[in-house]
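Hi W.,

Here's what went into the run:
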Amino acid sequence: MSDTLDPDDWPAFRAEAHALLDAALDRLQGAGEGPVWQPLPDGIKARLRAPLPHDGGGDLDLLADILPYGPGNTHPRFFGWVHGAGTPTGLLADIAAAAMNANLCGRDHGAIYVEKQVVQWVREMFAFPPDSSGLIVSGTSMATLVALKTARDARLGFDCRKTGIPGAGLVGYTSAQSHSCLARTFDILGLGSEALRLIPVNDAFEMDTDALQKAIAADRAAGLTPFFIAGTAGTVNTGAIDDLDTLADIATREGLWLHVDGAFGATLVLSDHLRPRLLGIERADSVGFDFHKWLQVNYDAGFVLVRNGAQHLAAFTQTPEYLQEGRALAAGKPWPQEYGPELSRTNRALKIWAQFTRHGTGALAGVIERNVEQAQYLARLIEGAPDFHLSAPVSLNIVCFSHENPALNTDIVAELQLGGLAAPSTTVLGGQTVIRVNLTNHRTRLEDMDILLQGARDIAARLS
Ligand SMILES: *Cc1c(COP(=O)(O)O)cnc(C)c1O
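Here's what came out:
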């Protein structure tokens, strides 16, 4: 036995690796075959139940055997929540990333240059200035945390990093349809989730900007300190886009930080046809979005973009003696770890770089535009159906609808999933559980909408 953890028999390991690569490629080439989702078989669950291995030497067949048992988001008829499908390109990038095993905290090495290039591309996407900053993060939840902490510290003065924030009275605003990560972030940052005011929405599920102005005035009158507005570009329930330009006007007038949660919707910037829907995003102080949703980068990859790069740095930088800048490998400050809470960071830059380089923004915009068309198509099918009706306007890529007997909605969704035909999810609108179809998948085709609706209809007939 060798005394490292490297293989004793490299040729055998090479053969094992090639076989697993082939299994992975087979899985991706056949992504549209088989059930969308299927439960993990009891046999595999039993194999997993093993004591902590002491001696090792076990076979890794599980790595191939588990391939069909993901959430299903690689399949064209995965419509649940907001999941991207990923690409085979991501497999290539992850092979390189695993072999490099780079820690992207900072320092001067190849992967850092790739991340810097990705940051530059995002500036370009959103037409942000050269002194804006950005960080690749795990997802929009983490992007929200980084943005909100920067906003909070900028408002209170960066000394609050040492002195804390007792009794600061900070309050922020977002719509009642905003993602739960915003309230969670208010909680994490010690502001309290109740300090995030949930402003009512209009019939289009967009923030009511008159109600927003009244809430700000009421909080000021109560002696509190408004500091933050989070607009949403693409709400998770219905895909609504807040009136970002009006939010930017209000933020400017009131001296508030404007953040845009654009987890999937901000990526409309890549489409000439859809970009006008985001008018105002170019005035945001910060934007959070995901590469792993509509841009189809493999999990996980999100991004936070901050207009004032100096403030972003001031909110997170920390330089203990063992992380000082030096020559050679220790060069290149500021490092990514000075822009967020994580020190060790995985190499997400390669897969983002590979996705843009291989597919280009044109093809990525094409995915977005096709998904929006599919949503419109499904909406028309439902509008013309005697047995289903829309539960919310379809403004983007999310279709919420209901059977004429709404009591069946939950079971229709579960039965569609169990049968492997499709995987929509549910949400609650106006107190009623509805069927929710989200389209952020480059593999989905128009006919999948017909298959879905017919499947739902067949199940409803069976259930009634
Ligand atoms: C998905 C989503 C989030 C959270 O993003 P993660 O990448 O899952 O952390 C936030 N906001 C909206 C609108 C989302 O759709």
